[in-house]
Structures are given as C-alpha cells and as structure tokens.
Design brief:
The structure is a homotetramer. Chain A is an alpha+beta fold. Chain A has helices spanning 37-47, 91-94, 106-112, 130-146, 171-178, 188-203, 231-239, 261-264, 335-358; strands spanning 4-5, 10-14, 21-27, 63-67, 69-70, 73-74, 79-84, 150-158, 161-162, 210-217, 245-250, 268-271, 274-277, 285-286, 289-290, 295-301, 311-315, 320-324. In chain A, α1 (37-47) crosses α4 (130-146), α1 (37-47) packs across α9 (335-358) and α7 (231-239) packs antiparallel against α9 (335-358). Chains in contact: A-B, A-C, A-D, B-C, B-D, C-D. Chains A and B meet through β1, α3, α7, β11 and α8 of A and β1, α3, α7, β11 and α8 of B. β11 of chain C pairs antiparallel with β11 of chain D.
Chain lengths: 368, 368, 368, 368
C-alpha cells in the first residue's frame, strides 16, 4: 500500500499540484524498448486542457527524462521522468486554507497526513498527477501495439447524452479512430452536443461527469490470475487510482443483474479454427483470465468536484461551518481528458500481466 | 500477481473443487487475537447452501486449523486452515472433459495452464474456494468489531426485484440485522419474492444474478492511500477476486454520470464537534482516503453460469463445436451466498489498511 | 515482511514444531512442470536425521499434496503440501515453559507474539519448518536441472576440520557427487573426522557448527537486478531465513579484505567464443547480476543452540534467573542436514530470477 | 525484483553515473517527520570524496526535493529527491566502450540490458547511486534517533590493518564518536596507518578493501519476522544492494564455525529487571527477531575494481581479448565512504520493521 503500481513493470508516482515538479519512475522494462516521443506527446495532448472546455491552467507538460532512456530506446534501467509545474497560482488557494472542498480529499488528506501536506491545488491528489501516468502509459501502449494489442476508450455518455456503442464487428477500426480524436466520441454529432452540455455546465458554475467505455483488442487468452490477481482485479485497482473514478464494470456489468444465465453466458464457437465466443457479455474475461475476446469495461467519472457555485462546508481546523466559493481554475468536465488516463493505466496492467507469463524479455529489444 | 491478497495481513489461497482439500494461510496477525469459532461457523453457514435455493452439493465445510491458533487465540504465527472436500462427484464432470462451459473459466484456464489443471468442478476457479475466504474473513471481522467497525451487505436487487435501500439514519441497525439473516434482505417480503424468482429460474433450468449493497460503519477518516492503493482500489481488487463479480461502484456509482457536480458533492458540516458530510454520494471515500462517513459500494453478481439448459459450445481440445447439457449440481443463484464473501474480503482489506497506519499491534492481544 | 518468499514464484510457509502439521504453498509454477516424487524424497532424506549424528526425533516427513499437482505434473494452480507432525513429545518441553533457551528465539518470539505463541519445541522457529522448504525446493531444482542448472553444497569446514575445496575445473562432477551423498563432503576421509567430531560434541553434551560452500553451475549471464534485488541480495535474504545461518559471503568473501584490487578482479577472456573470467573471486556475480561463471558462496551455520550442558538463563515471565538443563531430543550438529536446505532456497531464488526475465512459461510444460 | 527497497517504507532508486541526474523516491512516511537538512548534509559529506584518498570526481551532491517536503517536515506524500550530475566526463570512458572492466558489471549489464544501457561511468551500477540512498537514509536515521535508536559503523580492518573493536560496555559512546568522524575508526592512530595504506595502493595504481563493523543500539526486542523476513534477511538484502559488498555476518559470524554451542550461546540474565544476554555472539538477533541487545554485523567491502594497473579483459561486442588500462577518476578505496551507506540502508530496514509492528504513525508528527 504505497504509491507503486504493478509487479513486474512498476510505476512509482510523485508530486504535488503546486510543488516543484511531478513525475514517475517506470521500472521493469527490458533494454531496447522504442521510446516514441511524438506518440507520447500525442497522448499527453489528449489529456491536456482543450479550449474553454477545460481548466484555465495551461501547462507545457513537457516530459523530461532523467534516466533510463538513451537514443530513443529504453536502457532497461529505471526510467525517471519529471514534468515541471510552471503555471502555479498559490494565491488562488489561500482563501481555501483548511477548507474542506466538497467532493475533494482535502479533509481526508488532512487527517491522513496529520495536517502536514501541501493541500494547495489538491496537492498530491491533484489531477495533475495523471500527466506522468499518461507519459509512461504511452510507453506501455507502444509495447503492446508492437504485439498487436490496441486500447481505445470513448465517452459512452456525458450527463445523459449517449454516444453510439462500439461496433463489435469493426472494433479495431473504432479504436484506431478514437486514438486520433481529441474529444473521444464515435458519433461526431453527439460530440458536439456533449461539448455544448459542458459549456452549459460552465455557465451554471457547475460541472458534469459521464461514463467511459474501453476496449482492449488483440489480447490473447490465458492472461491473468485465478483469484486475487484476476485481470479484472488488477485493471480495477489501477482504474480506481484515477481521482474521479467511482465505478467500473466489465462486459454487461450492472446489466447482469437483470439477465438470466442463459442470456448472460457467451456461447463458444470455432471461427477459423480458433475458439471464440459469439457474444461478449463477459467482457473477454472468465474467472479472472482473458479468454481471447476483446476486454471490455465501463468506467464512471464523477462530475468535477471543483465548481464555482456556492457550497456549504467547514474549516476542518477551526471546526467552523462556512460557505465556500471557489475562484480557482477548474474544469466543467474532465471525462474527455480522463479517457487517455484510463487507456494508460490499462496498458500498464496488461503489459505487466503479459510479463508475468512471458517475462520482461517478451518486450525486449533485439540484442545489439 | 499470485494467489496472495493483502500486504500487512496476507491471505494465501489454495485448493480445487475436486481436490483433497481447500484452504488458506492468514499471515500478519499479532499474537492474542480472539478466534471465535462460533462466529466463524455463523459466517460459514451464511455462505452454505440453503435448501432448494442452492446447489445439491452439501459439504460440512468444517474448518481445521493446522497452525497459528492456540487456546482460542492467534499465536501471531501464520494461521493455516484446511477444509476437506468430502462430497466429490467427479463422474458428474466426465462428460464435460475439455468442454468450455459458457461463462466459466474452463477454456481460459486450459490455455493459461497448458492443459494441466484439474478442471473438474471448476477446479481452482470453483466457488468452493470462497469457503476459506469466509473463514479468515470472520477473523478479520471480529478484529474490526472490537474497534467498532461493522460490515453488512444486503441483496439490493435480484433479477430486477429490489429490496428497500439502507436506512442511512439507522445504518448500524440495518447492518446488525443483516448479519443475523441467512437470506440478506432488509424487507422480508421482498425476500420471499426473490426466493420465488430463484425457484422459477431453477424450474426453467436457468439462473439469476443481482446487486449487492455493502456498508462499512465506523471506519475513521484518513485510511487508504492517495494513488494506486486508494481504498477503492484495494476493495475493488479484492471484490473482483470473487468469481461471479463483474462490477463495483462506490457511493452514487454509475449514477454520477447523470448528476451535476453541485448534486454529486457532499457538503461538509460539523456534528457534535466532528466533521461529517450531510449526504454520502461519495460512499465515504474522497481521493482514495476514507472521510469518516460509512463506506458504501454496490457489487454486481452475474447469474450462475452453470445452467441445465442446452447451450452451444466447443471442445477446446478437438476444436469441435458441440451442444452442452450440464447435469451436475448447481445453484440457480449464488448472490445470497456471495454476500458474506463480499463482507469477508472487505474486512480483510480494511484491517490491512488500518495496520498500514497503526501497525499489526493495533489489533494485538494484551501481553500475557 | 511476512512468511512469503519470492515474487514470481512464491513460497508461503506455516506450521509449528508441535502443531498438527507443517507445510507450504508454492505458487507461480506454470502448468506441466514434472513433479518427481522420488527426487523429492531423496532431498527429504538428505535433510533427515541420520543415526546418532542427529536428533532422536524421527519423523516420516511424508509430503502430502492437497492441491496443484495432478498425474505427476504441476497444474499451474497453487501447490499446497503438508507434512504431519507425528512424533511430538510436548512433555519434554514442559520444564522449559517461559524459559529462554540461550541461542534460541524463545524470548524474542515471546515479546513479538505477546506471549501467545506455541513455543514448545521451538514452535514456528523450529528446524522442522525446513522440511517443506526442502520439498518445494526439490521442485525448483528439478526445473533448473531441466535447464542445465545444477546446485550443490558441501561442508567446507566443521568445527575447524576442513574438506578439500571445490575443484573449479571439474565443478559439475563435484556437484553431482555431493547430490548423491548423505554427508556432504568431497573428501570421504575428512567426512569421517567430522562425524567423529560431532560424536565428541554429543558426548560432551555440546554441539558444533561449520561452513557450507555452495556452487550453482550453468546459470547464464544477465540474471538479477542492479540495486535492491541484486542476485546476492535475494540469495542472502533467502539463506538467512534458515534458522542457524549467521553469515553469507560470495566468492572470495571476507578474504577480499586483505586483497589488492589487482588480485580481486577477475580478468575476462574468450573461451570457445564465450566470455568467461579466468578466476572467479567474485563468485559469478558482478554488480548484482550473474556473469555466466558459477555462482559461489559460503554460509556459516552456528552450533546447534540446544545442548544438554547446564546453562544460565531466565524465566522471561517471572523475570527470575535460573539454570537450564535441556533433556529434549537434539542434534549435536545440524550443518550436514542444513546443506540441502541451502540448496533448496537457492534453487527457489534462481528459478524466480529466471522467471523475471523469461516468464513463468520458461519452465512451462508442452501444451497438451 | 525491481529497484524498490522496503515494504511499509519504500525507497525507489534511479539514475546513471553520466545521466542528467540521480535520485530517489521515499514513500510511506507519515506527515510531520522532521527533515533535518544539515544532518542530511553531514551524512552526505561523510560519503563524499575526501582529498587524495578518493576519486578525482567532485560533485556538489546537492539534494533537491521535488515533492513530499514542506517547511522542514515530511508531508506524508512521496518524497522525491534529485541530485544533479554536474561533473561528467564521458570522454574518459570512450576508450572503455564495450570493454568489460574486471570486477565491474559492464559485461553482466550488457547481457541483461541487451546492449542498450548507458554503461559510461558504470551507468546505473555506479557508486554515485549511493548518494540518494544516504540522503533518504539520513531521514530514517533521524526518525530512529527520535526513538532512541542509534546506528554506527567503523572500519574494523582495511587491507589487514585492524581498528580496535567496539567497546561493548560503552557502545553508544563509540557510535556517537564515529558519527562525527569523516574517516570512521575508533583508534585515530590506526586511522593514519589505514590512510597511508590507501595512499600506497594509489601509488601502485591499485586499490584496497576491508571490513566494516556496524552496531545498532537501542532497538527493542520483538522486531523482525520468523522466516523469510528475518531481520537478518532484510538487513542482508539491503546491504548487498551496495555495489562493493561481498559478504555479511551477524554477531560472531564466520567465527561460529570454530565454536562449541556452549561458547556460542548467549546466556540470558536479568539486569535492572530487564532481560539481557551477558554476551552477544548472536548479534542481537535470535531466530530472525531482535532480542533487545545491540544488533551487530560485519560487512566486507571488496577493493575498488577500478584500478589504473594494466588488466587482461575482452571487448564483449567483438569478442576480442584486449589489455585494459583505465585512465578515469577512481578511488584507491571506497570503504571509508561506504560506511555511511551501510548506516543508511540499515536505518531504512529497521524503520520499516518498526512500522510493521507499530505502523506508519509510530513515526508520525503531532497533529497540527
């Protein structure tokens, strides 16, 4: 129980919203993994603030490698990367000192850290911390794509507005399409409505959330563990480390509650000599192990807790109730930015699981 | 990625449905934790098959301690417990050899284990494995209750039939009530309808699932970790290790997708000099850390995959398609049995998290 | 910090000297690893008491598998094995109640476990616990031998009596020879002197220790980690889990203290197109990584703390000083029994390290 | 098996000798631990190059905190620190390209990393990496000293020249004295001889090693684990992560090989109502658990492998033998610098072990 994710491929995270810098250590890569800076930048840009839909805080988010990378390849030694915090406006938060922002970890963190943490801007709990996650996730996604495994996520619904579902028959095309989008929806028209809804929330000094729908295409059968490291367990654990996530469900998810077993079970069949299922209600996972079908899950992202609307809260130091009015820089929605973070942690978990079976060298570069 | 759950308090699981025995090792307890056999038996009974609602397989499920327990107290050394498999009917499964039962891990497991696993009765993936989990969970629940922390779960919905929600004002009463029930519903009348629905499913050679609603009352604020070991992450990881679970959501869960931030945020207030929230949409967790309110989450349990209805599937060895008709002993529903397993793993995770902050001795017995 | 060893291949240990049974869980094996019972028994016999040289306690030490093994192969699921404690004589220890036996963990354990542990016969600290380690170690040694990696240990010195050193030129022959010996010395004559020395110690109601010299032949270069999981770190960690071990040194070991760098460095050369070193003062490890030369280390085993001689000690409950006279069943030496335990844990660590690089499937059975 | 040390208190290490910077993440501290920069600098200076006794490479080794520290106290969030590499002379190493320096990890690392690592200056294997270890170790030592636990190490022997042993009766005084010394010997006269010996080695283009003797004073009884996380196991694992270490032995260490049990056992006695032992041959540890006596161990440091003398070696890329002459900047001895690294990792392990029993909050700052 620490700030470390993974077993064979470990991600260590550090930093605070208003600190010097944020960053991560990625350890467990073999030597010779291609580090594609432009691909990484693409992913970083997908996470970045886009126009009026997002926070006023603009950061270059330039990834600087301190170790582990040489001439565009992993060395095999720990990769340390830092991202400077340049656009810090502490004074925005002075008024919030010792104030529990509803929906935020200020109070919980204050108790946990005995009052010593730098809570300004959310401190260590800030969404800023997802930037290094996306950076290392890009490396993992590169590795997986080399193996024919592709991950994509779209905004299935935003404050009730629904995108069209994935096309199960042309899933890979959908995934590839999404990975080129800044605002990840399959139906561009729906996307415009969603953007308008976000705008509306901003005008109301409010915020909205939604549901992300993720697909992992190309993962072979037999990956994962039976009990405590079920593939669902490890993906869920990683996904819940993303601030605004409050739920995850695989395949038919909560829909299973209203189905009969005969509807829920996915019949097996033989296609081109390969074992497949004719439906995928189980989201590509049986008993915690991948079954060769696409891994599918939905993630719910709550509305951004930082809103400009007046809210009742307390000063947790003086134990006085107060009315809160936040004037900082905030996102009326983060779901369109969160999607690439979901892709990133998913990639890390799947790469880690493959290493469990095939070892670090599975992703290793040709001896040179 | 192994069969081990937890960090300070570790549970190691072993066994197969038709093997000699199943069991677990619980390590990390201090010396002097009371081991209440009758409480453990109560929990074991809640998991057991009840009449026609459940499987024809009846097991004594007698817990035998091989080590770590002496005179009714933990010694502090690893607790090893075994539960014999007495009622094994391998021949029921001979017809299923190399057959992928839809919704089961037979095929995925066959690939993972290169064809060497004892798949009979689900092998290591069998629900039988939840018996030792409930046994050690009972120990953890005892420890937590000593600290004023109580866990309870009810069947919020079964194939569309809904129980009344928890009474937030008298939550502890509801929890205590449930922990005395064999069939965990808050509204007895609804319970009868659910049982009838299960009966109906059986008659149709089918099965049903549902949603479990869990509450943890009495957990202090400040427990959990900010990123990868968020309390939500660790609970989710543990819950997904239960076979039929396909989704988990905290607080308002997937409902957040349709809310405004101003609705989703829980206003803080002072009550009896203590910081509380006036609503609990966030399920007692902010930024991965407990905030002192009850921890609340829903878990979806899919319909039992083993059904008597004919199903299309394949022989994964010969790669031939076939029609499957299962004649083994199966449950038309397992949700009423799964609830105590959810309580058990939740207790293990919370005890582990408390040890992170206060150490093993927090639960330690008085020096003797 | 638990009773678990390893990362990809994990060994969980349990049991007490006078408990029901002792045992272990071995998790992380792929399906299809050959489980050679007769080889396992050979190793168990090497650990067993031999005639008057050892304890009066005779145990069948029959290994019973509860799970994970089928038709002579690993299933890939956790292997649980138990060894019954049949020859228990608690009354031998009644006189020792609350008495700190010098050199033993009675007192340290009493403090750690708050006085709740079953200290009888050493409880969880008993040498008995090495039996399951040898059993699972045999599985690991089998796996390694399939890959051309052989491990052997001889008694380099016993109470000052020295065996001839390993023949570096015919190291594998020496290793194979030792693995057939019950009393592991390279010079049979020296072996007789050592046995006489052990006899002499017994007659004096005393005990003796010595130094074990271990060689691992056939391990490729590039295995291990640079910093905290140096191959030396992981081997040392495992070796120190053996009760009587008080020191370990690789290659020239403490002899390095008197050498010049020009003497200590191993010159590299090319032999049959392969990189080798012409000396092996570094014991096959540079910077924590194997360099392709045999891995070599010495382990010191202290004299058995249980002696019949009168000793001054205390009752740690009453805090009274007392004179102790032990009448139990004890070994005048355990070094000749410890050697196979050293081989076992070494095998577990090396198999684990290879899995890190090549994955679980490196040792996997051919798909069937 | 990664670059992470510890369980409750985790140290993640990164960097290369000639990279941008080196550093570490320390996670698991509670909020409110005093971060004493001047104490940290003292420790850093003890590790630094001193005059002609050491390398020509001089680094400011200024510790920069990127996160986790605020107003001189730990925040409770991960502490990230970096140390810039300013004095890099790559060209010194161009001649060494693909050359296996005897006693170094160049070749082993090349195999492990498939030829992609930045081997220049030893790369990730460089002694430079011990700088961040000393920095975080200083934090741990501070924490322990608050609890009355003090750690000290002296050069017991250097190339055969021996310091006087620790004064068991006035051990704490010796420890305090050493922690003020730059060249850690108890007998200043002997220190001069040692320095002369180092000088002599330099003149001969050679190097020397020696033995470090460490004492931990004030650790209570009952700390550590019985089997795989024996206190000896965890200390040894950490110590072997230090580059030049080739052996470790507790208490009488390899001397046990020539003792009788009656000599080796430490008689227990009562002193001021406390259980003590009248000798400490077991180095304060019985069965892997601290017994309340000072923890004592010796560590052997091999002579610096980098020497100016001509050496036979190979180019591991071309597989050609060659004669090596190193012209870089090297230490004729590093033992006097290594001692504070030994203190640092020992402190980390002991703080971690105490957290296991008492939790993170044991070291926590008063709520503010």
């Amino acid at each position: 129980m620490s700030n470390i994710l993974g077993k064979n491929l470990t991600l260590t995270l550090f930093g605070e919203s208003h600190g010097e810098a944020i960053g991560a250590i990625l350890d467990g890569l073999p030597g010779g993994v291609k580090i594609d800076r432009s691909y990484m930048q693409e992913m970083m840009d997908q996470r970045k603030a886009v126009g009026s839909l997002s926070t006023g805080r603009h950061e270059a988010d330039e990834v600087q490698f301190l170790s582990g990378v040489k001439d565009g390849y992993s060395e095999g030694t720990p990769i340390a990367l830092v991202i400077a915090n340049t656009n810090v406006k502490r004074k925005d938060y002075d008024a919030l000192k010792d104030t529990a922002r509803p929906g935020h970890a200020d109070y919980a963190g204050d108790v946990k850290y005995n009052g010593y943490e730098d809570a300004s801007g959310g401190g260590h709990f800030s969404g800023r911390l997802t930037a290094p996650i996306v950076a290392v996730g890009a490396i993992a996604r590169n590795m997986l794509e080399e193996k024919g495994i592709f991950i994509g996520t779209h905004i299935a619904s935003l404050h009730g507005i629904k995108d069209r579902p994935f096309d199960e028959v042309h899933l890979l095309e959908d995934v590839n399409y999404l990975n080129k989008c800044t605002f990840a929806v399959l139906d561009a028209g729906v996307g415009e409505c969603m953007k308008a809804e976000i705008e509306k929330a901003r005008e109301q000094c409010d915020s909205v959330g939604g549901i992300l729908d993720t697909a992992v295409v190309g993962l072979e059968a037999g990956i994962g563990e039976p009990a405590f490291d079920a593939l669902e367990s490890d993906i869920a654990k990683a996904i819940f480390s993303i601030g605004a996530v409050k739920g995850i469900a695989f395949g038919a998810g909560f829909g299973f509650a209203d189905m009969y077993g005969s509807e829920a079970n996915d019949p097996f069949a033989i296609k081109d000599g390969k074992v497949v299922t004719t439906t995928n209600h189980n989201g590509g996972i049986n008993g915690g192990i991948s079954n060769g079908m696409p891994v599918r899950f939905h993630t719910v992202i709550k509305p951004t807790p930082s809103i400009a609307k007046k809210q009742n809260t307390v000063n947790y130091r003086t134990k006085e109730e107060k009315v809160l009015e936040i004037h900082g820089r905030h996102d009326p929605a983060i779901i369109h930015r969160a999607r690439v973070v979901v892709d990133a942690v998913t990639a890390l978990v799947i790469a880690d699981s493959l290493m469990e079976r095939y070892g670090r060298e599975y992703f290793g570069g040709k001896r040179r």
